[in-house]
Design a protein that fits this description.
By secondary structure, the protein is an alpha+beta fold. It folds into two domains: 42 residues; 140 residues, no CATH class. Helices cover 28% and strands 32% of the residues. The strands form two sheets. It has an eight-stranded antiparallel sheet. A three-stranded antiparallel sheet has the order 7-8-11. Strand 9 and strand 10 form a beta hairpin.
């Protein structure tokens, strides 16, 4: 803050107040921008939400499977969410799961990496036909309606359910919240 003196050596309060107001306004705007940006970056994208619903993928998640720790790291953001899968204690080739937004309701899912059979195959999911996501035993089941809401890239077959092994599934409440968030934010979908 600059302080100027008038001809008698007194502080020029008008100049100081004006400078203070400008600085305060700038700080308020900068603070609002930082706060808004921080909240915006915390919201999941449509592709991230689909990855969470279908496969339990989430950055930093660790899953114990057959006595080994499987780690997930998100390496792609935005309309394409990409996750690196690593297993502790093993020198395995890198494996990736990529979820890409085709439009508001349709998503392409691909498993890729070294030693992955059919690595170029892409499964298409129509989340406009999403009916429910239920945590059960031994699977979490994601159910779709309509005709051919899931099209499998390897076989070109259609499906209506996606089953996820229970070990990879997420808490039932979080799963239902993710479905509600997806439907209210990205694709309301069909009523039946």
């Amino acid at each position: 803050m600059s302080i100027s003196l008038d001809t008698r050596g007194n502080v020029d309060s008008m100049k100081t107040k004006t400078h203070f107001r400008k600085k305060s306004t700038f700080l308020a705007i900068a603070s609002l921008f930082v706060t808004t940006t921080a909240f915006a970056s915390e919201r999941q994208t449509a592709s991230e939400t689909v990855a969470f619903i279908l496969l339990g993928l989430e950055d930093g998640r660790e899953i114990e499977s057959n006595g080994e720790m499987v780690r997930l790291q998100q390496v792609g953001h935005g309309s394409t969410a990409k996750y690196r899968i690593t297993v502790d204690g093993k020198n395995l080739p890198e494996q990736f799961v990529t979820v890409s937004q085709v439009n508001d309701c349709q998503y392409a899912v691909q498993l890729s990496g070294d030693n992955i059979p059919n690595s170029s195959a892409v499964d298409l999911y129509d989340f406009g036909q999403l009916i429910s996501a239920e945590k059960g035993d031994p699977f979490t089941t994601i159910t779709f309606g309509g005709q051919c809401p899931i099209k499998y890239g390897v076989t070109d077959r259609c499906g209506n359910q996606h089953n996820q092994p229970l070990g990879y599934s997420v808490d039932g409440t979080r799963l239902k919240n993710a479905v509600n968030y997806f439907k209210s934010t990205f694709c309301a979908g069909s009523a039946f």
